[in-house]
């Protein structure tokens, strides 16, 4: 296979999206149209019947959304100030909306601040939002990563390494600025 044919094969793989339906012992594959090639760079998350993941298209960072109800796929360009970085960008849920965080790019463990790129609930545009955890440095002495939010709106953080064979989680209530510690 020459270089030209390998490139065409690669592009055809990137453009191919299929859904498998299994019912009563029958399996049916259907294709979903996708007009632009892109390589994924983040893991995916499923929220409200939609699968989201980060990808790169040409020189733009994009979010890809597969709507499982309508079996359609669409892409949206992310803000330039929030690059998707392979291995360090995580896709999480923030107040029920998909959001990206860059573990390599935030200063949570030094200042208690980090940035999210999330979908605005009203405009459905992707925006960058700064988050500040009050007195983080005084309350937390070891590295943690942001995991997302729970339905009550509390921020959830996990210790980067196990502590005595246990996972340590922190829940931060933004309304009363309370930090709860859990060991599991």
From TrEMBL:
N-terminal signal peptide: 1-21
InterPro entries reported for this sequence: F-box-assoc_dom_typ3 (IPR013187), F-box-assoc_interact_dom (IPR017451)
Swiss-Prot/TrEMBL keywords: Signal
Top-rank lineage group of the source organism: Eukaryota
Domain F-box associated beta-propeller type: 15-184
NCBIfam families named among the record's database cross-references: F_box_assoc_1
Protein name as it appears in the record: F-box associated beta-propeller type 3 domain-containing protein
Organism: Eruca vesicaria subsp. sativa (Garden rocket)
């Amino acid at each position: 296979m020459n270089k030209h044919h390998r490139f065409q094969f690669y592009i055809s793989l990137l453009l191919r999206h299929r859904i498998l339906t299994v019912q009563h012992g029958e399996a049916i594959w259907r294709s979903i149209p996708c007009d632009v090639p892109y390589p994924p760079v983040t893991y995916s998350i499923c929220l409200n019947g939609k699968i989201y993941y980060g990808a790169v298209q040409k020189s733009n960072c994009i979010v890809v959304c597969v709507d499982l109800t309508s079996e359609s796929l669409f892409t949206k360009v992310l803000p330039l100030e929030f690059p998707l970085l392979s291995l360090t960008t995580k896709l999480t849920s923030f107040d029920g909306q998909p959001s990206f965080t860059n573990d390599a790019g935030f200063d949570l463990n030094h200042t208690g601040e980090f940035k999210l790129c999330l979908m605005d609930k009203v405009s459905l545009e992707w925006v960058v939002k700064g988050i500040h955890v009050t007195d983080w440095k005084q309350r937390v002495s070891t590295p943690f990563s942001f995991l997302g939010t729970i339905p009550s709106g509390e921020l959830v953080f996990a210790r980067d390494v196990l502590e005595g064979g246990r996972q340590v989680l922190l829940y931060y209530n933004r309304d009363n600025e309370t930090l709860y510690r859990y060991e599991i």
